[in-house]
Specification:
Oligomer: single chain
Strand content: under 5%
Number of helices: 9
Distance between the termini: 43 Å
Number of strands: 2
Length: about 190
């Protein structure tokens, strides 16, 4: 990765490191969003080992400073959720674009990184699809077990179906390799059977 791209990645990780929520990973406490970003990169390496620098930066910045806008700042209904997600995508893209610009990343690449974070042309743009696959894989690997404990089965099945539809065949293949509890595996199987 060119030095200006590496500099941008370092600043993105510095921003992630400011997340006040902490998690324990391999006996070490780290900021949750830094953990999330590292998981995103790990799954990107599985999904597309030859990913472009722009995709690598977009994947790493996908949740940039997300903790600053909690879900409960929007109405706790479907419309509120979609409004929150739409706002976050734009905001995260803008913050990443600013960081990349300050680091001297090429203007066309800055625009591309922002477009990827906003998930423009999902299903039509291969890199946007890869980013979506990676986000879904991280959800299934890192967030699903807690999610499934907090919601009723109908909601879980609905979310799993929506997650599956957003993924490519390669994403599906990787998702089926994720280690899960027996209950979680059963819910995934049930969602895929319906």
């Amino acid at each position: 990765m060119a030095s200006n791209y590496s500099d941008a990645l370092a600043l993105i990780d510095e921003a992630h490191a400011q997340d006040p929520k902490k998690v324990i990973v391999e006996s070490n406490e780290i900021p949750y969003e830094l953990h999330y970003a590292q998981k995103m990169t790990a799954y990107l390496d599985e999904r597309d080992p030859t990913a472009s620098q722009t995709l690598r930066l977009a994947v790493r910045a996908q949740h940039l400073r997300r903790w600053e806008i909690p879900r409960d700042t929007y109405p706790m209904n479907k419309q509120g959720y979609h409004a929150w997600r739409t706002f976050l995508k734009k905001r995260q893209a803008d913050i990443a674009a600013d960081i990349c610009t300050r680091c001297g990343v090429a203007e066309d690449d800055v625009s591309r990184i922002a477009a990827l974070i906003r998930k423009e042309n999902l299903k039509k743009d291969e890199e946007t699809q890869i980013l979506e696959d990676v986000a879904c894989l991280v959800f299934l690997d890192d967030q699903f077990e807690q999610f499934e404990q907090e919601h009723d089965e109908a909601k879980i099945i609905s979310i799993l179906k929506k997650t599956w539809v957003k993924m490519s065949d390669k994403g599906h293949e990787l998702a089926l390799q994720i280690s899960m509890s027996e209950r979680a595996k059963g819910l995934v199987a049930k969602a895929l059977a319906e």
